[in-house]
Amino acid sequence: MANIHYFTFTIAILELASSVAYASDPDPLQDFCVALHESKAGFVNGNFCKNPLLVTADDFFYSGLRNVGNASNPVGSLVTPAFVAELPGLNTLGISIVRIDFAPNGLNAPHSHPRAAEVLTCLEGTLYAGFISTNPQHRLFAKILHEGDVFVFPRGLIHFQLNLGKTKARAMAALSSQNPGIITIANTIFGSNPPVPTEVLTKAFQVDKQVIDQIEKQFQSENN
User: Fold this and answer.
1) Which of 137, 152, 162, 205 falls 20 to 30 Å from 31 in CA-CA distance?
2) Do the Cβ atoms of 176 and 117 come closer than 8 Å?
3) Which has the closest alpha carbon to 52: 96, 91, 94?
4) Please, is 188 exposed, middle or buried when counting C-beta atoms within 10 Å of its C-beta (0-12, 13-18, 19+)?
5) How far apart are CA 110 and CA 159, in angstroms?
6) What is the pLDDT, as a whole number, of residue 220?
7) What are phi and psi for residue 183, nearest 5 degrees?
8) Distance (Å, whole) CA 20 – CA 117
9) Which residue in 201, 204, 206 sits closest to 216, CA to CA?
10) How far apart are CA 84 and CA 93, in angstroms?
């Protein structure tokens, strides 16, 4: 009987390990698999591979992060991504990177990445960075970051960065997926298409319909 229990436990552990192993981007089965964005062969979970004989150094190069982002918008920040769409050589490597530019007092609004953890490095200015744990504790983990400081955001958790200074700030962040996905909380809830029913939002946020209408008006105009 003990052997049966041990065998069952072993199978359960192997199943769990297998599910964890496939929980992130797939591993490459060759030296590289440069994304072939223009393929019309069908839709896959990822990208088709470019013929290795046609791959060049340009497939692994992207200059977009050298440009200063225009943070002149309502929240005062701009994220410039280098995901697989911008850098095809990232395909199957399970990594990507973004540049974040902040206006004075600018905010990278609360958001989450469903497919990636994130490591943020403050390169210029002073940032207040934090993330919030899941139900039911909702614990806030936050630090003030100075130039050279690093902060980690666990996969899928809501996080943000706020520029505490009266001058511009800049950060770079590495993510553990070639396509991490971005869910900006306010935009998603109040700017969805079609809109989330007002009855849902009034109950969820415990406010009057007029408040929801005012907020939705702002985000619907931004998203359209």
Assistant:
1) 152
2) yes
3) 91
4) middle
5) 5
6) 77
7) -120, 100
8) 14
9) 201
10) 10
pLDDT value of position 28: 72
Measured on CA atoms in the order 172, 101, 158, 111, is the torsion positive or negative? Answer: negative
Residues 6+ apart with CB under 8 A from 103: 71, 72, 76, 77, 163, 168
**Angle at CA 165, nearest 5°, toward 162 and 167?**
115
Residues of the chain with pLDDT under 50: 6-23
DSSP letter at 46?
S
Percent of the chain predicted with pLDDT > 90? 75
**Left if phi > 0, otherwise alpha if psi is -120 to 50, otherwise beta: which for 58?**
alpha
One-letter identity of residue 131: F
Could you read off the pLDDT of 49-99 as tens digits, one per residue? 999 999 999 999 999 999 999 999 999 999 999 999 999 999 999 999 999
Angle between helices 209-223 and 198-205 (to 10 degrees): 120
**One-letter amino acid of 73:** N
Q: What is the pLDDT of residue 43?
A: 65
Two tokens, residue 84: 């697989």
What pLDDT, on a 0 to 100 scale, did the predictor assign at position 9?
A: 46
Q: What is the pLDDT of residue 41?
A: 60
CA triple 154-184-152, angle to 5 deg: 20
User: pTM for the whole thing?
Assistant: 0.84
CA-based nearest residue to 100, from 40, 43, 160, 19: 160
Q: Which pLDDT does position 32 carry in this prediction?
A: 86
Please count the CA atoms within 13 angstroms of the CA of 194 that sit on its side-chain side.
2
